Fold each of these.
Amino acid sequence: MDLLRWTIVFLILALCAGVLGFGGISADFAYIGKILFFIFLILLIVSFVFGRGRGPRL
C-alpha cells in the first residue's frame, strides 16, 4: 500500500502546485503520480492472480 500512498502524495503535490501557478512542476508531479498509479494497478492484478493459487489459510 506504500505505492498507493505515494501516488496520493504526488496527486496532492500536483494539485497544490497547480493552484499556486507552478505549471511545469504540477505537470511533473502529475506524471510521476500517474506512473506510480499504473505500477500499483499492475502489481495489484499480479498479486490477485498469483495469490489465488494458494490454499485456504488455516
Amino acid sequence: MPGGTIGGLTLGSAVMDHRRLGRSGLNISEITFGNWLTHGELVGREPALACIRAALDAGITTFDTADVYAQGAAEEVLGEALRPVRRSSVEIATKVCLPTGDGPNDRGLSRKHIMESCHASLRRLGTDYVDLYQAHRFDENTPLDETLIAFDDLIRQGKVLYLGVSEWTAPQIRAALDLGGELGLRSRIIANQPQYNMLWRVIEPEVLPLCRDEGIGQVVFQPLAQGVLTGKYLPGQPLPEGSRATGGGRAPRFISRVLGDELLDRVQSLRPLADAAGVSMAQLAVAWTLSQPGVSSAIIGATRPEQVTENAGAAGVQLPADVLAKIDEVLGDLVDRDPSKTARMMAVKDSWNRAVPDGR
C-alpha cells in the first residue's frame, strides 16, 4: 500500500495498519487522531477524553495537536488522556509557529520561540519528548538556518525525535533540505502535513513529487473537507443543527468555502460509490486519501466517539481503480489543483489567526 503498510498493532479492541513515515524508520497508524477545532474549543473535557479513548480502542496510535490549538488546552487534554498509556506505544506530534501570545516573540520560527514553545508543549503533554515536531508555517522573518539549527538542537537533546513541516510550498521544502545538507545537520524533514482531500489537491503538481523523491511522508489533514465529504450537508437545505458549520469558534469560516449547492450536489453523487463499496461517505473520503501515493496517514477529528470509530473504519479499505476513476469523473472541474493556493490559503488563514490565534 502507499506509504508502506507493515502490519497491525492491537492497542484496544481493533487492529490498525501502520505505515512508514516517508523513508524514516518511524511507523505511524494509517489513521491519526487530531484535535484541531475540537478539544478545548468546540467540545468540553469529558467528550474530548472519550474521543481519545475511542481512538485508542480503534487501534490508533498516532496523535496530532499543536501549541496554538485552543491556546494550549488541546495539548493538555491530549496529555491527560494519554497519561495511562505506555508512552512508547503511541506517537505524539505537535507544532510550533503560530501565535501563542501577544508578545513580539510569541510566534514564528526564531530560536527563542521554538525552544520556549517546545518546552511548554512538553509540559502540557506531560512527556519528555515528542515523536514529531512540525513547523506549522514557513517563517519569512527568521533566517532559515536559525530555524533548522534550533530544531536540530532539540533532536540532539532528545526532546524531539523527528522533524516535519505543515503547509510549506515545494520551494520552501527544497530550500530547507538543501540548507540542512550544507550545514551538516543531524535532523532532516521526514513529514509534511498538508490539507488534502478529494476536492483540494493543490499539493499534487509540486509538493507531492518533491516529497516522494526526498522520502517525505504526507500526514494529511481535512480528508473530509471539514465534514462536507460526509454528505451531511445537502444542496438547498438548511445546515444541520449541531454540525461544525453551525457551531461557534472559527469552524464556520473554514466550512463556508465548500458549501456551494453545485459542489454539494456532486458530493451526493458519490453516495452510490460508497454504497457499492460497502463503506460510509466519510470512510470513502478517508480511504481515498490513503490510496494516494506518498500518503502515510490521514488525520481525523471528532466531537463524538462514534465519529472516531466510523472514520477509523477507513483503515485497510482498498478502493478499486474504477472507483477512484469514477470519483474523479463525478467531481470533475470542482477539484482544485492550483499549487499557488497553498501559500495563498495560508495567508488567508494566518489573517484569521491574527484575530483569533488558534488556527490550523
Amino acid sequence: MQHRALGDSGLQVSAITFGNWLTGGRPEDAGDCIRAALDAGITTFDTADVYGAPEFGAGETVLGDALAGRRREGLVIATKVCLPTGPGRNDRGLSRKHITESVTASLRRLRTDHIDLYQAHRHDPSTPLDETMAAFADLHRHGKIGYLGVSEWTAAQITQAHALARELRIPLVASQPQYSMLWRVIDAEVTPACARLGISHMVFSPLAQGVLAGRYRPGRTAPDDSRAKHARGGRFVGRYISQAVLAAVERLRPIAVDHDATLAQLALAWVLANPQVASAIMGASRPAQIADNVKALDLTLDDATMTRIDAALTDPEHGDLVERDPAKTAKPFDVMPAWRW
C-alpha cells in the first residue's frame, strides 16, 4: 500500500481510503469489508455522523466496532459534521453547539478518544465562519481532533477558512471533493487554490457511483443490487446513467484491457495520477472488491493513455461528456434535501 502526505502536514494517509457511506448500516457486510481493507494494507477510514441506516451514526458505530482492538496509532480515522442528524434546528450545521455535540457523539460511536481528520461536511452559510473555526480550534487544542478538512467547499470558501485556520494555528490540510474521469469540477478553481494553500484532496466517488466500474451497460436495466436501485445512492448515480455516458464507458474497456486492468482499476489509477490527490475513497459491498481495486496502485498511466481516455469520453453527437463546471460544486447543506427529516 502506498502512503502519501496529507497536504503540507506530516500526516500520512493510505492512497486508498475505505469509505463506509452505504455499507454503514449493514454490519454483516461492512465489518467484513473493513477487515478486508485492513488486510489489503489500507490504514485510512472515512465516515460521517450522518452515514448509516436505519439511523444516523450507524456508519461510525460499525467502523468503531470493526476497528476495536486494532493498534490505534496505525490508523487514520476521518469523520464529518454538518448534515442533519436530527429534526431540531440545532441538529445540523457548523455552529459551536452542533460541532461540540456531534464530535462527542462521534467519539463515542467510533470508540476512540480522538479523531485524526475532522471534516466540515458542507459549507454552512447560516453560521459565521469565525464561530465555526474557533470551535474546531478548541477541539484541536483539547486533543479531540488532529487535523481539519472540508468537503465540497468552493475555492473562495476554502481560502477564507484557511486564512482563519492559520491565525488559530490549526492544520487545515484536506479537501474532500467528488472527483472522477466524468466529474472534474474541481480542476478549474478548487485544485489550484488547494495547491497554493498546501491542501490535499481525499476524493470521493472516483468510480462515479460504479458507472466507471462498468456496473451499468448501455440498453440494459440497472442490476437490482446496484446503487441506482438504492434509495440514497440512486439520486447520485442518476446523473451519469445516460446512454451516451454508458457508451463512453464501453469505449474505455479496450484501454483497461491494454493495461491488463479492470475498468475500476483504470478509473482509480486515473484519479491517483493527479498529484493533488492524496487518497481515493473507495466503498465496497463485498471484501473481494477491495483486494481487486487496490491493484490500481500498480498502474501507471502515461500521457498517451490519458489522451485516449479523454477521447473515449467525447461523443460525436454530444461532445465532451465530462462535467467541468466549477459551479457544480455541491450546494451548502441548508439547500440539500434531508435524507430523513
